[in-house]
Amino acid sequence: MRFFLFIALISLGLALNGCDSMPARVRERFEPAQPKNKVFNADARAVFAAAQAALKAIDFQVTRAGFAQGIVAGISRIESGESFGKGRQFALDARIRSIEPAQTEVAVVLREQEESASFSGATDIPLREHALYEAYFSALDRALHEKSAAPDSNASGSR
Question: Average of pLDDT values for 32-44?
Answer without folding.
Answer: 92
